[in-house]
């Protein structure tokens, strides 16, 4: 449990500080990065060979590291043709992550592959096959509670996956307890009402701005968190409440070893080139985090650093314009740029040679500063 000021909480590393040290010796295959993903906006009907090919090309164009192919791929694509996709992706420098159903008597869902990971023998067979195919990792979904046997199941999966150099993403799951330090092949865990819920019902979309301003103080204190952020254009049958720059801030505000991006190629093509360049070079692993300002449900501004690069992002959870003061003396390089909201969906970019003292944020808006 983390107790203290909002700064203490948001900057806390207690989750991993208290976790056991890594049990994995060879970590060369473990790399963070952004990922394309068709399912969150296109849903079940587009888990097919041609769409997967398109999203591999999309990831390559965006200089992202991964492409996630979701449920029922074994039925709609099959193992043999999936090997073709894996080979195609590998030639473009893209790793494929495949969805799995955790299965078991706790789970009545029909999505597949199902019932392949429950036993050690089953995991050995499946993971060895995936390794031979060249698959980068697995997204495993629909877990059943926090009982001791289920917690042991998480650990067993991580240990067995590491033997075959497979990255793991848990969904429909418990919160991480620093496991990513012990099992460094654990890239992310859901345990959050994320972007998919926003695509399901308008009420969730209406609550998104305030919800996103709570998460940095709560769930994402114990990262990684697979929110699957960022819709820049539109969500089918849903009216988005947030501005485009609000959405651009989320992949920095929320931390995940693999950051699965919700936006699809058609939406990305509507954005200016500077937005694409920002996303083409965006890190997912950070050396430092600084809380600047905010209050749960109202607004939040954080700074994250990788090497000599600083990213400062902020979002506004309320339907009123705000002026945010910036006090960031630890950023030495004053040359950078600001992405801010404009009148329409397309944001604006401003080159900087000094750190601004104040930032204007639109209702349900945001900003991105890069130095």
The radius of gyration computed from the alpha-carbon positions, rounded to a whole number of angstroms, is: 20 Å
**Fraction of residues in β-strands:** 15-25%
What's the arrangement of strands in the largest beta sheet? 6-5-4-3-2-1-7
Total beta strand runs = 15
Structural summary, described in words:
- By secondary structure, the chain is α/β, with parallel strands linked by helices.
- Helix content is 31%, strand content 21%.
- It is built from 14 helices and 15 strands.
- The mean pLDDT is 97.
Question: Secondary-structure blueprint of this entry?
Answer:
Blueprint lengths: L5 H5 L3 H4 L15 E5 L1 H4 L6 H13 L4 E4 L3 H4 L2 H13 L3 E7 L18 H14 L3 E5 L6 H16 L3 E4 L8 H4 L3 E4 L5 H6 L1 H11 L31 H10 L4 E3 L4 H4 L4 H8 L7 E8 L3 E8 L2 E8 L5 E4 L10 E5 L7 E5 L5 E4 L4 E5 L1
Gist of the model:
31% of the residues lie in helices and 21% in strands.
Label this structure with key terms.
single chain; alpha/beta; six-stranded antiparallel β-sheet; 14 helices; 31% helix; globular
